[in-house]
Amino acid sequence: MITIDIIWSLFSTVLHIGYVNLLATAASLAIAYRVYYALYVSPLCNVPGPFLARITNKRSEFLGAIGYMGRFARNEPREYGDVYVYQPNAVAISHPVDVRTLASMRRRQLGPYFSMNYLAKAEPKIAQNGILSLKAKWETQLAASVDGRVEVNYYKDFLFATFDTIGALAFGREFNALKNNDRTMIDWIGDAVTYLGMTANFPLLANYPASLLLGRWERSYNSVIDYAKASVNMRRGYLSATSPENKPESLLMLLAGSETSSNTLMWTVHLLMLYPQHYQRAVDEVRTKFAADYLIGYSEGRLGLPFIEACIYESMRLMPVTGGLWPRVVPESGITLQGHYLPPGTEIYVNLSGANLNSAVWDRPLEFDPTRFLDNEEARRNMFTFSTGVRICPGRNLAWIEMLGILANVLKDYDIAFPEDYKLRGPNVLDENGNPKVLDSRHFFVSVPQNPERDCRLVLTKRV
C-alpha cells in the first residue's frame, strides 16, 4: 500500500509539473552534473584544454567529420600546452619525450609490408611506374607545346604516379592512372576515406536505414574492396589472410602506399616554391652532381643529395600528411606526463603535428628550413611523421624510395615555377607569423589542400 501511495504521489507530481518541464529539468540537471564532474571531479580536471572537449566527444567527432582535425592538431598545443584535454576521458600529447614514452608502453609486432631487400630488387619497377611514367607524360605534353612550356597539376600527377606504383607492387596490376589520366580508382579511394571517416565518427551511419545517406561513398568503398580482393585472387598465395582481414589490409595498402607519399611530395614542392632560396639550393645540388636525363636511384640520392633529403624531412615536419591524432590507452600502472597523472583507462591521442611543431624542440618551428636536418640525427629522431618505436610506419622504406627518386629527378630535369596568373600564394604572401602562407588544408586520412585542382598548378619547362 505504501508503494502504491509513493507511485501515485510521483505520478501526481509529474502531472502537476508537466512532462515537458520535467524533461527539461532532467536534461538541465544532467548537463549541470556533466559540467560539474568535468570541472571539479574528473581525473583530467586539472589538465588544460577546451571546455567543450571536457563535456562531449562530439567536438572531436565533428572536427574529424569535416576534415579540420589536422588544423586543430597544429594550433591547440600552442594554446593549451603539451598535454591537453581532447575528450572527456582523453588527452592529446605533443612533446617528443612523451611521444616516445607512450610508444614504449605496449609492445606489438608490426611486420613491414615491404622490406628494403625486396624494394631494392623492385626499384626498377618503382621507377618505371613512378618517375619514368611521370617524365613520359610531361615530355609528351612539352613536345606538343608551342613555347616549350606546359602547365601541370602536381597534386594529381604525383598521386597518379605513386598510385600506379602501389598497384604494380602490391596487387600486380597496371592501373595506368598516370598514362590515361584516369581518376576512377582515385575517386573511389577518396570516397572510401570519407565513408570510413564518417562511419568511424558516427557509427549509426554504418547501419540501415541511416547508411542510405552515405550511398555514393559506401558504393565506392565496396568497389575498392572488390577490386582489391580480385587483385589478391589474381596473385594466388600473395595473402593468406581471411576475407575479413583482406578488406582493411587492401584499402590500407592503397591509401598508405599512394596518398601519403604523393602528398608529401606535393607539400615539399609547394614549400620549395614558397622559399625560392631553398629551391635554388636543391636544384644546384642535384644538377652539379648528376647529368641531365641520368636516372638517379635511391642509394645515390641518399648518399649524394643531403639537402634534397633534408627538404623532404622538413616538409614532413612542417606539413605532416598524417597530421591528425592517433589513440592509445593508459595501462593499469597509469602514467604521468608533464606533471599530469593519467589514471588507467584514460585515452591518449598522440598529436604528431604538435610534436613536429613543439617550440621546446624546434627553433622557429613554423618556418620551412631544411638546413635543420643537415648532419643532425637528433632532429630526425624528433620528427614523428612516420611515428616512432614499435609503431613506426611499416611502409616508410617504399615512401623514401618513391619520394627521393621522384623529387631528385624532377628538380634535375625540369625548371618549375608558379603560373603568371597564380596570386593565391607565393614568397611574398605572408601569414600572421611573417612566413610565406601555406595552402589551407583539410584532413581525413591524409592532409591535402582544400582545392588542389585550382591551387596545385605549376609551369614546367625542360632544363636548359
TrEMBL record:
Segments crossing the lipid bilayer: 6-33
Ligand binding (heme): 393
Gene3D superfamilies to which the protein is assigned, alphabetical: Cytochrome P450
GO MF annotation terms: heme binding; iron ion binding; monooxygenase activity; oxidoreductase activity, acting on paired donors, with incorporation or reduction of molecular oxygen
Keywords: Heme, Iron, Membrane, Metal-binding, Monooxygenase, Oxidoreductase, Transmembrane, Transmembrane helix
InterPro entries in UniProt: Cyt_P450 (IPR001128), Cyt_P450_CS (IPR017972), Cyt_P450_E_grp-I (IPR002401), Cyt_P450_sf (IPR036396), Cytochrome_P450_monoxygenase (IPR050121)
Cofactor(s) it depends on: heme
Annotated PROSITE patterns: CYTOCHROME_P450
GO BP annotation list: secondary metabolite biosynthetic process
Family: Belongs to the cytochrome P450 family.
Protein name (database record): Cytochrome P450
Lineage: Eukaryota, Fungi, Fungi incertae sedis, Zoopagomycota, Kickxellomycotina
